[in-house]
Design goal:
The chain has 66 residues and is an all-alpha fold. The protein has one domain. The radius of gyration is 10 Å and the shape is globular. The two termini are 12 Å apart.
Length: 66
């Protein structure tokens, strides 16, 4: 799975639950909440004031390393 800004957080977590650590790092601690799971990575980063490209790189690097 290739993660992009449009990727839905719930889909990413379903694909690889170990990616939750990267969402926690940006202050997104409500991953079980339905609205959080349905949000795109880009939208979540905008709300949490973080760089979507940096988060996506971390997640894709993590997935590729497995």
């Amino acid at each position: 799975m290739k993660i992009t800004k449009e990727s839905i957080i719930g889909d990413v977590l379903d694909f690889d639950p170990t990616t939750a650590q990267f969402f926690f790092e940006i202050g997104m601690h409500c991953l079980g909440c339905p609205s959080a799971r349905g949000e795109s990575i880009e939208d979540a980063c905008a709300v949490h004031g973080t760089d979507a490209d940096a988060l996506i790189k971390k997640i894709n690097d993590h997935i590729a390393s497995k």
